[in-house]
Amino acid sequence: MTADERNEILEELHLITKLLIWRLFKDETDQKEKIEILNKFDLQPQQIAEYLGTTANTVSVTLNKIRRKQKPKKQEK
For the chain, what are the domain ranges? Predict the structure, then answer.
């Protein structure tokens, strides 16, 4: 397989992935939920951003907010 053939296959897989993600979220409107779900599939912030049409920084900030809310608060004595 040549490098050009490999790149063409990778581009097609990327397109298929984007279409599947669009189908998964076509009725969802909450960006935070989309980011949280895609993160559960072990996608990196850059990948999530690419699929959702946003920036990796936006994804990272959103994930940090989600993690902070999930941490149990320390109980005061």
Answer: 3-70
